[in-house]
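Section 3.1 - Work completed
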Amino acid sequence: MAVGVPAVPAVHPRDGLAGAAGLPESKELGKEGGESDEDQLVGEHARRDSPAWATAGGLRKALLSNSLGWVMGLVFALSWLAQSVAGLAAGNAERLAELRDPESWGGYVTGPEFWSRTLQNWQSEFLAVASMVALSIYLRQRGSAESKPVGSPHDATGVEG
């Protein structure tokens, strides 16, 4: 083992992880959707190393089951709020320099300037993501965890390289 490189913890064969601990992977075709509690390792099917909330029920299980969506939604809302505050501050600085009255936050977020900036930002983000998705169908990157093996057919999904 190289000096300064931490050892990868051993994975118990019962856990069925085949050495890929912590890596998100695509589901196999036909396994889309929420799956059963047994497939998702929650409730009575949770393993000893599962998060504590995986064994809980009710609201805690629902929050854990959708935690990625909740956190990404919160990040989205907070970044949009920050964009509105920064845009309002910049716009009001210009207005004050021109000796005009400042605009209210409500007036700014319902006005065309805010929506123009928002839609331009979304357009660039969607273009970047859509191009990555489309290009990853036909192009490969040898050794990348995000790419299918170089020789896999274009319609192959869930293939590990």
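Second construct:
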Amino acid sequence: MSKSTVLLVEDEVLIRAILADALIDEGYEVVEAGHVLQAAAALGQNPIFDFLITDVDMPGALNGFDLAATVAKVAPSTKIIVTSGRRIAPDILSDWYFLPKPYSIDHMMELLREHTVTFGAPSKMIMAV
């Protein structure tokens, strides 16, 4: 069985490094990007990931929503998790999942494990405790 692949897009280096390490420890294959253009380059190398985890606000003209919308069109089987420290209107998430910052690594891992097969349901808000 091959490893699930994750495209992790987060401009905060420390958050990205900690989450990437946790994902690798859980057995995921991780490709990291610090902004949308780096993520686009990664998608050019491998257009299909099992998961996209993206922050919303990042440097540059494009944000995590732009990236998620593009991925949803070109790779509809990719499961999308959006994170942000600001409130996000649930109706813009479509069938994506939202995990508010700050979130725990345990919550992210739980979300990935629980929804490896069941993503695609209506939008859900996963609240950090």
